[in-house]
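Response to reviewer comment R2.3. The reviewers asked that we include at least one raw input/output pair. We reproduce the pair for SMP-30/gluconolactonase/LRE family protein here without editing.
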Amino acid sequence: MTADVETVVAGGALLGEAPVWDADAGVLRWVDILRHEIHRFDPRTGRDTAERVGGPVAALAPAAGGGLLAAVGDTVRLLPGDGARQPYGSGHPLARLPTGDRANDGKCDPYGRFLVGTLTERKDPGACALYRLDGPDRVTPVISGVTVSNGLDWSPDGTRLYFADTPTLAVDVLDYDPECGLATGRRPFADLRDAPGRPDGLTVDAEGGVWVALVRGGEVRRYTADGRLDEVVRLPARLVTSCAFGGPELAELYVTSGRFGMTDDEVAREPAAGALFRIRPGVRGRQAHAWRPF
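Raw output as returned:
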């Protein structure tokens, strides 16, 4: 694909992740997990600001009525919105995740339930899970036996859940009941064993296409709803981590990246590592679902 790749925030994030478009504020929110930062990029001004959270923040979702839901460390917290004067570190903890060392990717389903996964640095296969937040201190496993819970999103009609457990080198799909939040019938969707990297964050566009970031591969790939590889976008950074649609028409694809584990020489050869990128791929995305309090 020949889409132009624009760098909108210069390289520097150690582990950029979890982009989500906040339509009410007209900004893209994203995180630097290892720097414990939540970023706010305003495309109208080109300004990017960051606020520390006090722990590794790995996932964000807008909250209905204001504020942000965030996965910080092994907890899920409700954080104040832009208009509040409290720092993000004052957020209210809602639940603790029972497995893994910390939370990883997470999003809200069409009914406003928050799903978030975990990972462990101990390379313990199957020790983690994808969870559903059902209430204060109530989390329910949706997918068990996970090693590195990563990208997830739903089909436009909400009946299919796409999910990546990174070490499997695949994106799977499950049947999803949006009325009760159950996922069943897990099966392969896209085989990435021959890809140049490993599946990380993902997003689904308005046509049902699945966009997958390939960490260590420097690519974002689009797969059609039947699992066929449709587009490949190369980026000037190997550690591509996640993607999300944004902009007033949801016609821009924002892509996060990192530079964790890179030597000074590698960063010098790849100065865009850790940048936030923007692509106009010719398809539109969908508005992120907001978390709805219990």
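The chain has a mean pLDDT of 95. The first strand starts at residue 5 and ends at 9. Further pairs are available on request from the corresponding author.
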